[in-house]
Amino acid sequence: MLAKDIYGIGFAPADQIAQRIGIPRDSLDRARAGIDHVLLEATLDGHCALPPQKLKLTAVKLLEIPEATIEQALSQMLTSSSLLLEEIDGDALIFLPHLRMPEEGIAAKIKAPAQAPMIYPPIDFEKAVTWCQQRTGKTLAPSQRDALKTVLETRVVVCWRAQTAWRTATTGLGASCEAWASATTAGPSWSTTRSAADA
Fold first, then answer.
1. For 5, 51, 62, 123, which has the most beta carbons within 10 A of its beta carbon?
2. What single DSSP character describes residue 45?
3. pTM of the model
4. What is the pLDDT along the chain (199 residues), one digit of tens a residue?
5. CA-to-CA dists, residue 195 to 29, 128, 158, 198, 199, angstroms
6. Do residues 70 and 81 touch, judged by C-beta distance below 8 A?
7. Which residues of 36-69 are buried (b: 16+ CB within 10 A; e: fewer)?
8. Beta carbons of 31 and 82 less than 8 angstroms apart
9. Domain count, the chain
């Protein structure tokens, strides 16, 4: 468990040290450390949890040990509550405990505004886009049109790792669509929507 005990050492160097001092490659301690590492690495891609099968397969590939050893280590970690197993929308997911609570908090904060009714009348999307494109001199790509339509029809939008040029063009046209909507209806507040999208 050097990777946990010594900040910054990382899993690979800790694993090499463990093997040099005689810890077997198929030990449960190594398997548990590998499982922790896989879940932490998944956070770099924005995942708070992984499906059990994906977690096991990734750990097997990383550690090069039998899946049965991974399953035994995983079972111990779930029993001791060092990992949490939950079912969300019919899918089983395994969490690191310190990531579960923040995810619940964020979801709760997003849920209320997302479920609230729209505060403005329906917008004629095609007319709005035509007007906005003429005004800005920019033409939306199909993916940008889809994104803008979603933003205008949804109370909360989360934009994850959007390319800067794509996001700038889309939010800029969104602001123009707001101007068009404001001239014809009580339109949405783009600044609020954009803040949610950039979160």
1. 123
2. T
3. 0.55
4. 444 544 445 666 667 776 777 778 888 988 998 999 999 889 888 888 999 999 999 999 999 999 999 999 999 999 999 999 999 889 999 999 888 878 788 888 888 888 888 777 778 888 888 888 888 888 888 888 888 888 778 877 776 654 444 444 445 555 545 544 444 444 343 333 333 334 3
5. 44, 21, 9, 5, 6
6. no
7. bbbbeebeeeeebbbebeebbebbbebbebeeeb
8. no
9. 2
Same domain as 20, residue 82: yes
Q: Do residues 77 and 20 share a domain?
A: yes
Q: Which helix (H) or strand (E) holds 55?
A: helix 52-63
Distance CA 110, CA 113 (A): 6
Reduced to 3 states (helix: H, G, I; strand: E, B; else coil), residue 46 is coil
Alpha-helix residue ranges (DSSP H) falling in 65-141 = 67-79, 97-115, 125-136
> Residue 107 has which token pair?
């979801």
How many CA atoms lie less than 13 Å away from 69 in the CB half-sphere? 20
87 class by beta-carbon count within 10 Å (0-12 exposed, 13-18 middle, 19+ buried): exposed
At position 124, the amino acid (one-letter code) is D
Domain boundary among 84, 99, 114: 99
